[in-house]
């Protein structure tokens, strides 16, 4: 029941966005996802996935790093293609232990929120940004592997968002886009979506409109980010394909 309500919430948010800006931003998102943008998203997502796998292992994940990366890729692909946006993480928890996965998701999002707060404060109140930055540094000193990998992953997601913004033709400066990216990506973590779609586009439309860039541009950037992120998780989909069984070698007698 809860999962159905979460998906319904995502559908409602998407319906509101469509009613507000129309279908054009979503059509533009598909057109904007060209080869260069897709290549950048694939490369950046490779780095962020590696960082997330390292964080998971630091929090109790028992898989070797190579298997952890493959498992994390599969998890991201399922999150990006199935309703709710967390199905892959649930599968990871069932197969490899709940507590490490919960800690991985929770602490990763906490660091992302902290980074977002630091960036937002820097645009309005520099002393507050300094305090927030010092708190992040303090956390990094205590849990260096967890915080640093989370920060790199967060920066990677922001980088893909900026690629999406340029792909749709946004000419907003980096100083204007950076706070918007953090706000939208924090909203994207809300488990009230259709495979990640819903809150991300709704908050992007609102945030870009509030910044004077237009709700349609915000929806287009968020939708392009969604397309790029989906394609960037395709290695996880390939890892779900069954591998062919090895061919049995014939005995020497049979060959003769």
Q: Using DSSP, what is the number of strands?
A: 0
How much strand content do the residues show? Answer: under 5%
Termini separation: 64 Å
User: How many helices in DSSP terms?
Assistant: 13
The helix fraction, in percent, is over 70%
Q: Averaged pLDDT, please?
A: 84
What count of structural domains? 1
The secondary structure category is mainly alpha
Spatial shape = globular
The parts where pLDDT drops under 50 for at least 5 residues are: none
| Radius of gyration over all CA atoms, rounded | 20 Å
Main sheet specs: none
SSE run? HHHHHHHHHHHHH
Brief rundown of the structure:
The chain is mainly alpha-helical and 256 residues long.
Descriptive account of the structure:
This protein is mostly helical and 256 residues long. The protein is 79% helix and 0% strand. The protein is built from 13 helices and no strands. α5 crosses α6, α6 runs antiparallel to α7 and α8 crosses α9. The termini are far apart. The relative contact order is 0.17. The mean pLDDT is 84.
